[in-house]
Write a structure and sequence with these properties.
Blueprint lengths: L1 E9 L3 H10 L3 E8 L2 E9 L3 H10 L3 E4 L6 E6 L9 H12 L3 E6 L13 H7 L4 E5 L4 H7 L10 E5 L12 E4 L11 H27 L6 H8 L3 H5 L6 E4 L2 E4 L3 H9 L2 E2 L2 E2 H4 E5 L7 E5 L2 H14 L3
Parallel strand pairs: 5-6, 5-7, 7-8, 8-9
Antiparallel strand pairs: 1-3, 1-4, 2-3, 10-11, 11-15, 12-13, 14-15
Helix pairs in contact: 3-6
Length: about 325
């Protein structure tokens, strides 16, 4: 079994840390450098945790478990206006990042007002690109109940966060966390921090259930193996956007244009197969800003192989 850990510390002797992770048979999922500080998300065998932890302490860093690593989560508010995008949304996104997730904060184009709030098909498809979505809807119960239709048919699992507990929303989302409404200050008190932990726990449970479904018919290849392949691709190395390759439970997001680069990626080879044969590539709905890679399951690849072999029979 592998365990996902987060290292926080300086860049001092970081190359030795990377070598130790590789020697242990682990992989670096994400690394972020800010000046002389470094954060590294890694996946390592459980039996090697003591060795990795001891070395990290030796070089002056800290190690902790990050259950949401390898996921990308959208935190959505009705609009980007100051009325709908208060501090709790940012606090939720920050707390999930501390648990290892990559998070984005989004606002809908027309979410103001109980009677005029809307979500269009493009927005639904954008939110559906993420592993999970959190909708934060405010303090007024009738308003929250009226806006639950915003996420009733989104592809990604949804957690509703609101001040009051809405009625009739249980079948429209995977989980509900009440007691977190709009407020003009940061969530700093112990009860507020407990609510942030509750949200992270709800999201973690949903993603664990999603992983169990994937384990019933496993992916043909692990997303980290595709990630290592893409890191050798020059346009990815030259990309100045933060985290140019982001892991999902069932694939990856690569932050380069689809039209210019998808053929090059499809023709890359890994374990004797082309990436295009074992993955589905599509452009992001966000202005073709990135490429979504969905890895096929083992049964899908085997079925396609059998069809090809049958088609070649005389």
């Amino acid at each position: 079994m592998f365990e996902v850990l987060l290292y926080d510390g300086g860049v001092y002797r970081s190359e030795e840390l990377f070598e130790l992770i590789e020697d242990a048979g682990g992989t670096v999922i994400q690394k972020t450098r800010s000046s002389q500080m470094l954060s590294v998300t890694m996946s390592i065998p459980e039996e090697d945790r003591a060795v990795i932890t001891a070395f990290c302490k030796e070089i002056g860093g800290e190690v902790k478990s990050v259950p949401l690593a390898g996921t990308e989560i959208a935190v959505v508010g009705p609009t980007l206006g100051r009325h709908h995008m208060p501090h709790p949304i940012c606090d939720i996104a920050e707390h999930l990042r501390k648990q290892g997730a990559i998070t984005v904060v989004m606002g809908l184009a027309r979410g103001r007002g109980k009677l005029t709030s809307q979500i269009n098909l493009e927005e639904k498809m954008i939110i559906g690109e993420y592993d999970a979505a959190i909708f934060s809807l405010g303090n007024f119960k009738p308003c929250v109940e009226a806006k639950t239709d915003l996420f009733s048919d989104i592809r990604a699992p949804v957690v509703l966060v609101s001040g009051p507990m809405p009625e009739g929303a249980e079948n429209k989302c995977e989980a509900i966390v009440s007691g977190v409404g709009r407020k003009a200050s940061r969530m700093r008190t112990p009860p507020e921090r407990e609510k942030l932990d509750e949200i992270a726990d709800k999201v973690g449970k949903i993603l664990r259930d999603k992983k169990k479904l994937l384990d019933e018919d496993p992916l043909f290849i692990h997303p980290t193996e595709i990630k290592h392949l893409l890191e050798e691709y020059e346009p990815v190395n030259m990309c100045l956007r933060p985290a140019p390759v982001v892991l999902h439970l069932d694939g990856l997001r690569v932050k380069i244009g689809y039209g210019e680069h998808h053929e090059d990626i499809e023709n890359m080879e890994i374990y004797g197969r082309k990436v295009g044969d074992i993955c589905r590539l599509s452009p992001s709905k966000i202005n073709d800003s990135s490429i979504l890679i969905r890895i096929k399951t083992r049964s899908e690849v085997l079925q396609e192989d059998s069809v090809k072999e049958g088609g070649n029979d005389p």
